[in-house]
Each structure stands twice: as C-alpha cells, then as structure tokens.
Specification:
Layout lengths: L5 H4 L2 H11 L8 H8 L4 H26 L10 H19 L6 H17 L3 H15 L10 H26 L9 E2 L2 E5 L1 H20 L5 E4 L6 E3 L1 H22 L10 E7 L3 E8 L45 H11 L3 E7 L3 E9 L10
Parallel strand pairs: 3-5
Antiparallel strand pairs: 1-2, 2-4, 5-6, 6-8, 7-8
C-alpha cells in the first residue's frame, strides 16, 4: 500500500495551517489554577475556559501532528502511525473550523465537539504501540534497541502531551456537571484520600491476578486514611494499579511452585510537606540491575498488543489495561510528572522491588509542555 503523506491526504491550506499553529507558544496551567478556576463554573467562566481551549488545543495538536510526520527509522510510514496522524490532523481541522466562541450556545456546541475529539483519540496509545511493533518486525535485529533513543524520547513527549490534552478537555467537560459530588472540581478531587484510592486500585489489581492465576498475594496498606490532598483520582488509581499489578505478578510467579505462603505486598503512604509519597514494596525476586534501564522504555515489551488481534482500528474501546502491551510503567511515570511528581523503581535482585511514587502536594507546578 502506498504511504500517503498528510499533504496528499488533506488540503494544502490545512497542512500549512497545521505548520503555522505548530510554531505557536503553548500555555501551561497548574493543578491549583484548574482547581481554583473550576470551583465556580459560572457561564462566564465556562466561556473563558472554552475560549482558552479554542486557541490552546490546536497548538498542542498541531505540534504532535507535525512530529508524527518526521519520525526516525520509517516509523512515520507505518500504517498504525498514519492512522494516528490522521486523527490528529482531523481534530486540528475540527478545532480550526469552529467559529469564535461568543456566547453560552457557542460554548455548549464547542464542548460537544471537543468531547468527540477526546473519543476519536481513545485508542492512540495501543495504536502507537502497534506502530512500534510494526517497526520492530521489519527491523534488522542487529540494530540495538538502545540506539532507538529518539523514538523513546518522541513517545515520552507524545504521551505526555496527550495526558495534557485529555486533562484539559476532560476538565472542561466535567465542569458542566450540574450536580458535582462534594469536593469534586471537574477531574480534580480537592480532598482525595491517597490511602482510599490505593485500596481501590489494589482491589482492582488483585481481581485481575485472581482471574489470571486463581490466587493473589495479600496487600497491606499503611497510612492515615483520613489524610487528604487535592489531586486527580483517576491518574493516581491508574499509577497505583499498575505498580501493584506488577508486584502481584512478580510475587505470584516467584511462589507459584513453592510450599511457602506468598509474602504480602506492602503499600506505605507518607504525607510530607512538599510531596505525598506512595511506596509499593514486594518480595517478588527483583529485577537484575542490567534490566532496570529497560523498564521505562516502549520497545522491549513482549506482551501481546490487543490491536494485533484485528480489533477494529477505529474508536472502539480496547478491552485491556495498559499492561496489555507493556506501557504501564513509562506511562505511569508520565502521569506522575504531569503534575510535578515522579516515579522511581529501586530493585534488589534476589529479593524484591520497591516503587516510589512521588506526588507534588502543592499543585503549583506548571504542566510540562513538550
């Protein structure tokens, strides 16, 4: 199949517009700003928010569309990556075609349009993973994956930008909820209990473990359940779920043929002045030191990609978790970094692994803008 560049698929004027907007400066916002601004979702505030997104989202989307055209090693030509590029160009076109937002009626229509954009991009992560797999299959095995730093760096930028775009759209859409639950501002919970979120995420991960192995190690959580701070619960749930699932798998596989009872996974939640830190500790045998640099990369996974199975490549939801294609850790680290935190993994080969998830408590840091 002949590879079609964006300039052949879309009108020349649209591609020129993409390049023009891709050169404009992005504007970051902080968690604190989103929380304070969204705490009074008046019609005027929703109008201001929509006007900001009408200008900001095309800039962010255009940057990614341009980058998708110029990836190394022929990644840009892979069918799955072309599909993603088309989604980005189509979303850019929809944003730019929307007239200036002048009143509440315009704002409501704009909100429906950006909701549709968010749905269009639901499967970007597995689709890009499929593109990377298509690249790996066609590559000379002598090319060492360490040399693919450019692709790792691109995917980090790309997925971090995607987190930001989805946060901005989701936050705006959620502010329209006429009866928000107590302490909820859009996607943000102003009094989130990290212990409670960790407990829910752990139960979800254990149920997956039960389904795959027929049993699951215990999980003990230490920390003050009444301690709260403002954060995005869906982001924290995703990160803790991923870490706990990795620990459960490691412990389960280490003790599968053992007479000994599998040791529990320990989760410790500490509230510091600057950071809230969540430590997930297991005795699953650890990771060799030579393997540690690989755990945050996108090119080593041997896991099966659900899209390889011929699932419709459109916008149907892919019925798996992120670990289904080995992107759990690198993407969890991006979620942590998005609001000024980080994720570190410390391992003792022959014993187990400790994951430290740092979350910025202050909410002041601006979004990183790749």
């Amino acid at each position: 199949m002949a590879v079609k560049k964006a300039s052949e698929m879309f009108p020349k004027s649209l591609i020129e517009d993409v390049h023009k907007w891709g050169c404009m400066k992005q504007t970051g916002v902080s968690l604190r700003y989103m929380m304070e601004f969204g705490s009074t979702p008046t019609e005027r505030n929703l109008l201001i928010s929509a006007q900001f997104l009408h200008k900001e989202l095309p800039i962010r989307i255009a940057r990614r569309a341009i980058e998708l055209e110029s990836l190394p090693y022929g990644l840009s030509e892979k069918p799955a990556v072309l599909k993603v590029r088309d989604w980005y160009v189509e979303s850019f076109r929809d944003m730019r075609a929307f007239p200036d937002i002048k009143d509440t009626a315009d704002e409501k229509e704009f909100t429906q349009m950006i909701k549709a954009v968010k749905v269009r991009h639901n499967n970007v992560v597995p689709m890009m993973a499929l593109g990377v797999n298509q690249l790996k299959k066609g590559m000379n095995s002598r090319i060492v994956y360490e040399n693919l730093d450019e692709i790792h760096q691109f995917l980090d930028r790309f997925y971090l930008s995607r987190i930001g775009i989805r946060m901005l759209i989701g936050q705006h859409v959620e502010l329209h909820n006429p009866n928000p639950p107590l302490h909820i501002v859009g996607y943000i919970h102003t009094k989130m209990s990290p212990v409670e979120v960790a407990r829910n995420a752990s139960e979800d991960a254990r149920s997956i473990c039960f389904r795959e192995y027929g049993s699951a190690p215990d999980i003990n959580i230490y920390g003050d359940p009444s301690f709260t701070f403002p954060y995005v619960p869906t982001h924290l749930h995703l990160m803790v779920y991923e870490l706990v699932k990795n620990s459960l798998r490691a412990v389960q596989e280490r003790y599968v043929d053992s007479d000994r009872v599998a040791p529990p996974i320990r989760i410790i939640v500490a509230d510091g002045i600057e950071d809230v830190t969540i430590k997930v500790s297991d005795e699953g045998g650890g990771i060799p030191r030579s393997g540690l640099p690989k755990i945050f990369t996108y090119l080593y996974s041997t896991a099966r990609n659900p899209l390889e199975e011929g699932v419709d490549l459109g916008t149907a939801d892919v019925p798996v978790t992120m670990a289904g294609y080995g992107y759990g850790l690198p993407i969890s680290r991006l979620y942590a970094r998005y609001f000024g935190g980080d994720l570190q993994i410390i391992s003792m080969e022959g014993y187990g692994t400790d994951a430290y998830l740092h979350l910025s408590r202050l909410g002041d840091s601006q979004e990183p803008l790749p």
